[in-house]
Amino acid sequence: MEPLSPYEALELDNDCSIVLELSKDDPLFEKKMKLLQSKGFNSKERINFKRDPDFVTITLKVMLQIARIINLDEVELYFGDDGISSPDDPYSHRNELQALTSILRLIDISAYSSTQMQKDLFQKLHDAIIDMIHTFAGNNSMQPTIIENHHCDKENDLLKWGEQNGIRARLRIAYVKDAGRGAIAREDLKVGDAALEIPASLIISEELLRESDMYHVLKKIEGISSETMLLLWSMKEKHNCNSKFKKYFATLPEEFHTGFSFGLEAKMALSDTLLFEEIIQANNHLHTQYDGLFPILCKEHPDIFPPELYTWEQFLWACELWYSNSMKIMFADGKLRTCLIPIASFFNHSLYPHIVHYGRIDSATNSLKFCLSRPCSAGEECFLSYGNFSSSHLITFYGFVPKGHNPYDIFPLEFEDGTCHMVRATWLSRNNHIFHYGLPTPLLDYLRRLKSPILNTKTLGNLENELEVLEDLLFMFNDLMENLGDADIDDGIETSWDVKLATKFKDIHRGIVSSVLTSCYEGIKLLKIELSKCMEEDIRG
Ligand SMILES: C[S@@+](CC[C@H](N)C(=O)[O-])C[C@H]1O[C@@H](n2cnc3c(N)ncnc32)[C@H](O)[C@@H]1O
């Protein structure tokens, strides 16, 4: 799941200003720097505030433009400005929320150490940002159906146990349509509110492993990771009726439905797709890992590793548990650990999440807080962002496809010279004009240079070159479409969960390819119109 954003720099002076700075440690520093410069900004910008309400709005706009770029991820950066039609347009839901909340944090930190006069101004800025978050979130939300008549006795037991042991939850657990259980807000939750707070002592991490009888055996195995050791620990702990986490284990499903459990029919449906490769490779990796550990461990230490608890099926179950439910948490000692977190593991993922910043133990309270980046009303499901994952990753490791258009569903394109580019659904772009066609500029520029290295591309004199570029893309994507085959017809026969997911995946990919083809056709039409205009002008002399 997603790590915390590493940026932020604050300097406050008497004139009341905030400094937004792109961190030099940002792995995308050069690219972001270039983009900032193209918009007239530097990597470090001081924003001064005056006591004028209009100035607040204007300045926040500028701050947002900078914060958006600072918070871009690799995919957003690649597709850059292609997806936006005006400087006020957001790059993506994730980016916008992260940019807004990062400004909010900066303002709140500044207010903390300011004079009373400055505090008033910062309060105005704070309120203005909250309004912007409300407006943005209101236009971008998706709520599932909550199934109220499905009993949640085990989940309620766990919640009660948690609250008795220091967990603070402003959530209840309920079944939701097509996603198992989910976390529902018990009350209206505002931006900054902690929907859930878990004491570090209730987090399942490698610390527990060290106290167990298997640690002294496992630590002698060369190259074994702490994640694998913990996974083996959980396989046994699940059956321990004296376990501190017994109520947590009781809420876990008997079987997980991730890509690792895909049957033959679903795999066959996926053949020729990248997801097929991903699933096969991931499965092979697990088999190799299992075969390296078992049955040796059971034979040498049957009391510690009872063979009936360490079958391949149980191992696969534990892998699916850890892949689909664990979170990476930064502890107060600065170590990042993969953990299972009771109750927090009921949060489902959304492309329009409420919680984006999490994963760091608050050293003041020694607890993990899940604070909201956008409001969640009582009765609504409260969503997390698991990370910027494609549908194929989410199917393989989590077993679902999120609702909405996933901006991380991309087709990687590798060319003969080793250059890599990517394409995603062109409906995510709002720039369908000539020379753009909804397609990514880095890819178009690369293809233009391949065709004609010396021509300056964006002039009408190059229309023929441009036409060839689109025809090449058309050829490439027609091929991809053929590989995906025709859409499966719903014949009314009950389909298994894995075949349904495989079908959904192929439908998503067909949709993306089809959007690229449509954009190419539309682009070719535009170019032909321009070409005929040019020819007419030539004839007229
Ligand atoms: C951390 S758990 C979340 C709680 C889970 N729904 C449960 O009942 O235990 C992750 C799993 O929840 C499901 N899930 C999460 N987000 C989902 C979504 N947006 N749509 C469908 N299923 C989702 C997937 O099965 C995933 O592997």
What is the topology?
Elements: E1 17-21, H1 29-38, E2 44-48, H2 53-70, H3 74-79, H4 93-112, H5 116-139, E3 146-147, H6 153-164, E4 168-169, E5 171-176, E6 181-185, E7 194-199, H7 206-210, H8 215-218, H9 226-237, H10 246-250, H11 264-270, H12 274-293, H13 296-300, H14 312-325, E8 326-330, E9 336-340, E10 361-362, E11 367-371, H15 391-397, E12 410-414, E13 420-424, H16 441-451, H17 463-484, H18 497-540
Antiparallel strand pairs: 1-2, 3-5, 4-7, 5-6, 7-11, 8-9, 10-11, 12-13
Helix pairs in contact: 2-4, 2-5, 4-5, 9-14, 11-18, 12-15, 16-17, 17-18
Bound molecules: S-adenosylmethionine.
S-adenosylmethionine is lined by residues 178-182, 324-325, 345-350, 398-400, 402.
Written overview of the protein:
With 541 residues, the protein is an alpha+beta fold. The protein is built from 18 helices and 13 strands. The protein starts with 16 loop residues before the first strand and ends with a helix. Mean pLDDT is 90; it is low at 1-14. The site of S-adenosylmethionine has 17 residues, from β6 and α14. S-adenosylmethionine (SAM) binds next to β6 and α14.
